[in-house]
Write a structure and sequence with these properties.
By secondary structure, this protein is of the alpha+beta class. The protein is 74% helix and 12% strand. It has two domains: 66-154; 158-238, 2-Layer Sandwich (Copper Amine Oxidase, Chain A, domain 1), CATH 3.30.457.50. The protein has five helices and four strands; from the N terminus they run αααββββαα. Strands 1-2-3-4 form a four-stranded antiparallel sheet. Strand 3 and strand 4 form a beta hairpin. Helix 1 packs antiparallel against helix 2. The chain is elongated and about 130 Å long.
Length: 239
């Protein structure tokens, strides 16, 4: 019992000893019950408020992770495009080197001029190779940053992905409840020639609840949004 309950019971005992009137005793008991009920309501309200704050905090972190992941993906795609452009320029320079050598063989009188041009092209090729190497290093760094973002996604929001078979993927969620952070929920997603379907989930979410995110995933093929929607359903089911 709480300190409030003990104090109230002590008060009731003293009152019982000092009052012989039954009506006074009943009023004391009624007041004690009222205080106990009000105290219980206050505790329930505080717990609900903490649960709402926890859910809001998790949604905010998830939104930040999605934004970071999107930015990293855009940066990686930009680096890839630039690398392809540099590779094309390098191939063009190498082709020019071949052409210069052919001209050198056919036109001995212009040998000195062509040799100077060849040296220039070699310097250009060297610079292009250095640029391509730099772009590749940048792409590697961006890739590492993306992997770190995915790792943080798992660490902050408790998501792990397991491949059961080539056509089945299991998404395991934890940290769904502040009171039980280690409790897990999972969903098995199956893909085949007919499309995408949910083969199994625990705890059960119900066909009506899961239909909306599943149909949305079939339309836009956005796995990240689908995972977020399923996680929210699991959080709600465990409250």
């Amino acid at each position: 019992m709480t300190e409030l309950d003990n104090a109230a019971l002590g008060s009731l005992t003293l009152s019982s000893a000092s009052h012989s009137n039954a009506e006074d005793l009943i009023r004391e008991m009624t007041n004690l019950v009222d205080r106990y009920v009000q105290h219980g309501k206050a505790q329930v309200f505080q717990q609900r408020r903490r649960d709402r704050e926890f859910t809001i905090e998790q949604d905010k972190k998830l939104s930040q992770m999605k934004h970071t992941k999107k930015k990293l993906k855009e940066a990686q795609e930009k680096v890839e495009r630039e690398r392809e452009k540099e590779a094309r320029q390098l191939a063009l320079a190498q082709q020019k080197l071949t052409d210069v050598k052919a001209v050198e063989e056919k036109l001995p009188k212009e040998l000195d001029v062509l040799r100077r041009e060849l040296k220039n092209q070699e310097r250009v090729a060297t610079r292009l190779q250095a640029t391509v190497s730099t772009k590749r290093a940048m792409a590697q760094v961006r890739s590492q940053e993306l992997r770190k973002a995915v790792q943080c996604y798992g660490e902050w929001l408790g998501l792990s992905i397991e491949s059961e078979r080539e056509d089945k993927i299991r998404f395991v969620f934890s940290r769904l409840s502040r009171s039980q952070p280690q409790r897990e929920a999972y969903l098995v997603l199956q893909t085949d020639a007919t499309g995408v379907s949910i083969e199994e989930c625990e705890p059960q979410l119900g066909a009506a609840a899961i239909k909306v995110p599943l149909e949305q995933f079939k339309r836009d093929d956005n796995l990240s949004s689908f995972i977020c929607a399923i996680r929210r359903l699991f959080v709600q089911s465990l409250q």
